[in-house]
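can u pls check wat happens w/ flavin-adenine dinucleotide
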Amino acid sequence: MSALSRALLEIDAVRSGAVITDRDVLEGYASDESEVTPRVPDALVRARTTAEVAATLRAASAHGVFVTPRASGTGRVGGAVAVQGGIVLSLEGMHEIRGIERVDLLAVVEPGVVTGQLHEAVEARGLFYPPDPNSLATCTLGGNIAAGAGGPRAFKYGVTRDHVLGLELVTGDGTILKLGKRTPKGVTGYDLTALMVGSEGTLGVVTEATLRLRSKPPEVATLLVFLADLEQIQAAIALAISSNITPRCVEMVDAIALELMRRDAGVALPEGARAMLLIELDGQGAALERDVERLGGALDDAGALEVLVAQKAGERERLWAARRELSRTLRKSANFKLSEDVVVPRSRMAELLQLCGRLAEERGIQMPTYGHAGDGNLHVNLLWDDESQRPQVDSAIRALFEAVVEMGGTLSGEHGIGALKAPYLELEQSAELIATQRRVKQVFDPKGILNPGKIFPARRGHGAC
Ligand SMILES: Cc1cc2nc3c(=O)[nH]c(=O)nc-3n(C[C@H](O)[C@H](O)[C@H](O)COP(=O)(O)OP(=O)(O)OC[C@H]3O[C@@H](n4cnc5c(N)ncnc54)[C@H](O)[C@@H]3O)c2cc1C
């Protein structure tokens, strides 16, 4: 009997039906929302409890079988794909909101809760969970924690990392750990909660999270700012920051992406618009109105082509729906697409945008950009139609990453490294830092079974992790 069969027998003994080996079902777990080559896992385990997760990892660890944790599979770097085979461990079945505490301002959730569902549940009680990845209708809180997800509202409120107080975690050998706290303050021991956020399922499996909430801002206003020139974006962001008003988000869309929004979502564009900023402010009554007027006026004075205010919820939702769909809209517009989510200091945004334009022209491909401009976090897309152009695409990606690191930026702002960017990690991190992280992984996953082939570049003569 193979090691996999022995492990599956032990897992099945915990709950009959948790293990699935039906090829038709497994095929649905072969890819995520990235361009990583699909791989059908050898088996699927659908966990419903922490005890089942622990039993799965104990059995897999004892028999040396790889395990890839998976939630909704909306990840953009192949994180949930079992690139080296083995078991996919699905957390979709753990989807209970265990508690929402109004005075303590926290929510306790299972990892498979869909992010948008937590938003609805807390907002119905006048509370607010700010992290809002654009995939919020389908992605899960466990996936957000493992990927270190961000979203448009990060500009004012921060990312997922800033909202995780505590975690229940099962390590690679099946040990259950309670990390962190339920209080807003607490400095007891090492901050292992922070270590787990963004660890991409390589150190442990999150089975419960305690998340920080806020009071819900009473009103929201959206400014649509059209610019004649992409490079004006940096100046507009600097203006928004220096005006002493903190928008909750500052999103940008470049000319190519803007054209697709116009065509597919009916967004009206003024003549000559080459870029758009979507700025959202929250607050209350006259104070919010004053902020909108002040910021809108300053952007007008700074030479914006047009500044529109969308105050009705329906109007705002139509714009956001078009923005949230941009990634999929772009995918349909060319035969091949790759997308990167690099970050540079805000003060270097204009340089980054110029670089993308230059790389696209030199390599004969299209490189539309959009994203969380307020954070310097841009989704740089590479679109091409002919397979033979792939070497130019790869050389554009390498040149982009090298320039981003040189500008003091980072390869990934929110999607993580996964399988797609693992070969480039050494561009940003030293050999010593990578070796230190490998040693940390050994502590939490001594047998190296958790999510192999992710984050770290392959070592010659070794497995990828
Ligand atoms: C249209 C679109 C828009 C997007 N917009 C954004 C955005 O604005 N911001 C952003 O940050 N991302 C965005 N994403 C990327 C993606 O939605 C996020 O990375 C999200 O956090 C993934 O969640 P998921 O539930 O789908 O996780 P999966 O894709 O299933 O998994 C992601 C990673 O987490 C690990 N994992 C999953 N669950 C657990 C667990 N319980 N314990 C340990 N590890 C686990 C997996 O192994 C994998 O490495 C977008 C994706 C799409 C398709």
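The chain is about 35% helix and 20% strand.
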